[in-house]
From TrEMBL:
<comment type="pathway">
    <text>Cofactor metabolism; pyridoxal 5'-phosphate salvage; pyridoxal 5'-phosphate from pyridoxine 5'-phosphate: step 1/1.</text>
</comment>
<dbReference type="InterPro" id="IPR000659">
    <property type="entry name" value="Pyridox_Oxase"/>
</dbReference>
<dbReference type="GO" id="GO:0010181">
    <property type="term" value="F:FMN binding"/>
</dbReference>
<dbReference type="InterPro" id="IPR019576">
    <property type="entry name" value="Pyridoxamine_oxidase_dimer_C"/>
</dbReference>
<keyword id="KW-0560">Oxidoreductase</keyword>
<dbReference type="Pfam" id="PF10590">
    <property type="entry name" value="PNP_phzG_C"/>
</dbReference>
<keyword id="KW-0288">FMN</keyword>
<comment type="pathway">
    <text>Cofactor metabolism; pyridoxal 5'-phosphate salvage; pyridoxal 5'-phosphate from pyridoxamine 5'-phosphate: step 1/1.</text>
</comment>
<dbReference type="GO" id="GO:0004733">
    <property type="term" value="F:pyridoxamine phosphate oxidase activity"/>
</dbReference>
<feature type="domain" description="Pyridoxamine 5'-phosphate oxidase N-terminal">
    <location>
        <begin position="54"/>
        <end position="181"/>
    </location>
</feature>
<feature type="region of interest" description="Disordered">
    <location>
        <begin position="1"/>
        <end position="26"/>
    </location>
</feature>
<dbReference type="InterPro" id="IPR011576">
    <property type="entry name" value="Pyridox_Oxase_N"/>
</dbReference>
<dbReference type="Pfam" id="PF01243">
    <property type="entry name" value="PNPOx_N"/>
</dbReference>
<feature type="domain" description="Pyridoxine 5'-phosphate oxidase dimerisation C-terminal">
    <location>
        <begin position="195"/>
        <end position="240"/>
    </location>
</feature>
<dbReference type="InterPro" id="IPR019740">
    <property type="entry name" value="Pyridox_Oxase_CS"/>
</dbReference>
<dbReference type="GO" id="GO:0008615">
    <property type="term" value="P:pyridoxine biosynthetic process"/>
</dbReference>
<keyword id="KW-0285">Flavoprotein</keyword>
């Protein structure tokens, strides 16, 4: 006779169907704060993102520049994701800053210069997804942003071998002390060659507005390059 390892009716699930702050016990929270129509959208996804970002700032969304950056290495195809800050938006795309020598993301991008971004603005029940190629900014371009950082963060960019194993916090403090001595008395600190900006140049951008019963409004911009080499954006509504 075989016996179950667990008493009858006892589940192995550690978490099951969390309700996400719903006032209705056992029922998931419903999104009711807005809708999205094709007529609401601007012709360019970067223009549309800028409009939504300004809405997020006006609505006091907490750190609306917060974004999940996902990359994947080749040839194994293993993905990795982390929370970063978008620091710039221009007509070309979305810019984040990082160590591009030792970090996991740098290794992924070297083998596979493609990335995805996901913004989630809870207070507005909105999400933006971006997929595209990654290109490094020049040192001159990166220096402009680097100069806006507090001194400790500029020193830290030099000192931290990002994602590498440390024996302890003390080892990192030694690195910081060495860099402090190197730039002692200097206010203008050059951006490290291994640190700087990277732009995700969008090929696909999706705007998502939460709606009740999970019948969300989703619109996808897809870059279409014509025979003249110039790109246009095709916009389609997606099923939720």
């Amino acid at each position: 006779m075989l016996y179950s390892a667990k008493p009858l009716g006892q589940s192995s699930k550690r978490i099951f169907a969390p309700t996400g702050g719903s006032n209705d016990p056992g029922r998931a929270i419903q999104y009711k704060r807005g809708s999205l129509e094709r007529s609401d959208l601007l012709a360019s996804p970067t223009d549309q993102f800028h409009a939504w970002f300004e809405d997020a700032v006006s609505a006091n969304v907490y750190q609306p520049e917060t974004v999940t950056l996902a990359t994947a290495s080749l040839p194994d195809g293993k993905p990795s994701a982390r929370i970063v800050f978008m620091k710039e938006l221009d007509d070309k795309g979305f810019v984040i800053y990082s160590n591009w020598e030792t970090s996991r993301k740098s290794k992924d991008v070297k083998s596979n210069p493609q990335a995805a971004l996901t913004f989630w603005w809870r207070e507005m029940e909105r999400q933006v997804r971006v997929e595209g190629s990654v290109e490094r900014l020049t040192n001159e371009e990166s220096q402009v942003y680097y100069d806006t950082r507090i001194r400790g963060s500029r020193i830290g960019a030099w000192a931290s071998p990002q994602s590498q194993v440390l024996k302890g916090r003390e080892e990192l403090e030694v690195f910081v002390d060495e860099v402090e001595k190197r730039f002692e008395g200097e206010d203008k600190i050059p951006v490290p060659d291994f640190w700087g900006g990277a732009r995700v140049v969008p090929e696909v951008v999706e705007f998502w507005q939460g709606r009740e019963s999970r019948l969300h409004d989703r619109f996808r911009y897809t870059k279409v390059v014509g025979g003249d080499g110039k790109g246009e954006w095709n916009v389609e509504r997606l099923s939720p």
